[in-house]
Amino acid sequence: MLMKIGLIADIHSNLAAFKAVLKDMPRVNELICIGDLVGYAAEPNEVVELARSKRVRAVMGNHDYAAVTRDVRGFNPIAARAALWTADNLSRENLEYLSNLPTRLKLKYGGQNLYVVHGSPRDPLNEYVFPDTPNRVLAELVRDLDANIVVFGHTHMPTRRVIYGKLIVNPGGVGQPRDRDHRASYAILILGEEADASYHRVEYDIKDTAQKIRDAGLPSELATRLFFGW
Question: Based on the structure, what is the number of domains in the chain?
């Protein structure tokens, strides 16, 4: 039986981008968020509530963790300021939801085993696995996982690699793409006898998101970068 799994990551409180992705996405059997529902933009409560209403399965990202703990060590000053603003503005209920997210998911669909983590298996919140991460490093990360599909987020860059017969997928960033393409990014995992992924880009109202960032008093750089996909 063919299954389709929607993969989204790094929504970062960008409600317009999230809605655009949901509208564009074909019917899927399940929707998985690979971390960072919040951070950077100005609508964290709205994004979390929409994810919950859609019964999205999610793992915790580093910005989700920062919002819950107010621990911004390792963040640059702009990201830290946004994370603390997010912590101050999230409802108690949504903070509790984020605090209960797992740092990794191990899922099985028929004969396909998925391993889902925001960063990497050895550092689920903070390690980056970039599109050009060397094969040697990628092999070290995934070699011992009991999974034939490994899903990462965190870089905001779409990635498809195969190593040790394992399909490596990053759907890119919904709310703050960083591959020089301003459009929201997501992927569809197609599971049958074989596994593959398709990648999709969607236009959204960047001006609206950018204005809300400015109106909230968040750093203007977080608004400007959206227009450039970086």
Answer: 1
Range of the domain at 136: 3-227
Predicted confidence (pLDDT) per residue in 182-208, tens digit: 999 999 999 988 999 999 999 999 999
* Mean pLDDT rounded to a whole number for the chain: 97
CA distance to 117, 180, 183, 187, 200, per residue, from 3 (Å): 21, 31, 26, 14, 17
pLDDT in tens, 70-95: 999 999 999 999 999 999 999 999 99
String of DSSP letters for the chain: --EEEEEE---TT-HHHHHHHHHHSPP-SEEEE-S--SSSSS-HHHHHHHHHHTT-EE---HHHHHHHH---TT--HHHHHHHHHHHHHS-HHHHHHHHT--SEEEEEETTEEEEEESS-SSSTTT----TT--HHHHHHHHTT-S-SEEE--SS-SEEEEEETTEEEEEE--SSS--SS--SEEEEEEEESSSEEEEEEEE---HHHHHHHHHHTT--HHHHHGGGTT-
Which pLDDT value is given to residue 229?
97
Tell whether pTM > 0.90. yes
CATH of the domain at 104: 3.60.21.10
Contact between 170 and 159 under an 8 Å Cβ cutoff? The reply is yes
